[in-house]
Amino acid sequence: MKRLPSDPVALVRATIVAELDDVRDGPVVVALSGGLDSCVLLHALRFSTAVETALVAAHFDHGMRSGSRSDAAWVRGVCKAWSVDLAEGGVTGSATVPTSEDEARDLRYAFLGDVAEQRGAVLLTAHHADDQAETVLFRALRGTGIEGLAGIPRRRVLDVDGDVGVTVVRPLLSLTRDDLEAYARQCVVPYRPDPSNESASFARNVLRRTILPLAEEKVAPGARRSLARLADIAREEEAAWAAAMRFVLPALDVRPGTEGDLGRRPDAKRCLSCRRDALVEVGPALAARVLRRMAGEHGLNLDRDTTRRGFAFVQNSQSGRYIELGRGVQLHLKEDRVIIVSSEKPETDPMRGSASLDRAE
Questions:
Q1: What's the pLDDT at 99?
Q2: DSSP 8-state class, residue 302
Q3: Domain boundaries along the sequence of the chain
Q4: CATH code given to domain 8-238
Q5: What's the pLDDT at 345?
Q6: Nearest of 307, 5, 3 to residue 186 by alpha carbon
Q7: Is 27:187 a contact under the CB 8 Å cutoff?
Q8: Hey, which of 39, 189, 208, 296 would disulfide with 184, CB 3.0 to 4.6 Å?
Q9: Sign of the Cα pseudo-torsion (20, 177, 29, 57, in order)
Q10: Is the pLDDT of residue 358 over 60?
């Protein structure tokens, strides 16, 4: 394994170069809030001789804080001083100001995705290892499964208007906030502290300011890095399950439904079915993944309790019966088939949960 440099500037820049090795030939858009993390990312890209790519910063003003306009003006000044092109967006009136962090995130990513898509660019966000640790710990405390423990992905595809998506990359995910602060000190990188990071009303701040420091002091030194490492392990497990599912789904005869599956109901063509006997035979762990995959095709993210209830229904109920799984999605039994059908249009993003932790990516 290649040894990473100990100098904070060299460390940050080498990490970014390695993470962007396959996308350095094209343009990149940096999500720039004005905080420490995104300012370090933009500075490292702008002033590293090892990265030569068309660089654009993108800032979105949610209008949720009284100082957001001054943040936008400050970001404008930094980009001008660093000779970086800036794309700006934001809400247009009080009626459109988001009322939750989930809503704010959706608006922000819609804007960032549009900016990147218009330029044919990769989108970079400044999530780091501390963000990963907080996300993993929060989800663990809520009883998440392996998929939830995988935390924030290093890369994902962001859908833009239902077309081919934009690639999102987090090049700082292996670095800690301490690494970024050391870089900022050495390079005198300006940034704007976010006042909301001080509020105890947000779950993330309680984890960041109280629980994780106490855990590292009293229980497990290096807990943040350990939690980030756990996310990597969980993601490897998820990748293995995904590979296994490519063999499992055909064996269970998972296929689109037909009118014959549910009679001539108007929604009968929008269903998936599989062999009931085979689903029972594979056992609860694998059956749960199959049911979640099938429900996910209808835009429904099944939680653990609903998944277990669905599998118990498959095991014990008679043909001709059905149960509601949630949000218009039903699980039917008909003869030797398990059928999942939706009477509602699937949502593009079925994830629901605590803002910025369940959906931290």
A1: 67
A2: -
A3: 8-238, 252-342
A4: 3.40.50.620
A5: 47
A6: 5
A7: no
A8: 189
A9: negative
A10: no
CA–CA distance, 177 with 173 (Å, rounded to integer): 10
- Measured distance CA(177)–CA(183) in Å, rounded: 10
How crowded is residue 312: how many other Cβ atoms within 10 Å of its Cβ? Answer: 12
Q: What is the mean pLDDT of the chain?
A: 86
Find, among 335, 334, 340, 274, the residue nearest to 307 by Cα.
340
CA 1 to chain centre: 28
DSSP conformational letter for 154? S
Whether 208 shows a pLDDT value over 80: the answer reads yes
Please count the other Cβ atoms lying within 10 Å of the Cβ belonging to residue 151. 29
Q: Could you please report the per-residue DSSP string of 25-41? A: TS-EEEE--SSHHHHHH
pLDDT over 60 at 259, yes or no: no
Over residues 64-73, mean pLDDT = 82
Q: Are 91 and 62 in contact (CB under 8 A)?
A: yes
Backbone angles phi, psi at 301, to 5 degrees: -95, 100
Question: How many whole angstroms separate alpha carbon 33 and alpha carbon 131?
Answer: 15
Q: Which of 340, 341, 336, 342 is nearest to 280 (CA)?
A: 336
State the helix-helix crossing angle for 284-296 and 223-251, rounded to 10 degrees. 80
pLDDT > 90? residue 301: no
Angle between helices 177-187 and 8-19 (to 10 degrees): 120
What's the average model confidence in pLDDT over 230-248? Answer: 93
What average pLDDT does range 324-340 have in this prediction? 92
Mean per-residue pLDDT for 120-129?
Answer: 96
Q: What is the pTM of this model?
A: 0.80
Please state which of the four CATH numbers 2.30.29, 3.30.2310, 3.40.50, 3.30.465 is assigned to the domain occupying 252-342. Answer: 3.30.465
Beta-sheet pairing, 122-124 with 28-31:
parallel
Q: What is the pLDDT averaged over residues 183-188?
A: 97
C-beta of residue 70 within 8 angstroms of C-beta of residue 35: no
Q: Determine the length of the chain.
A: 361
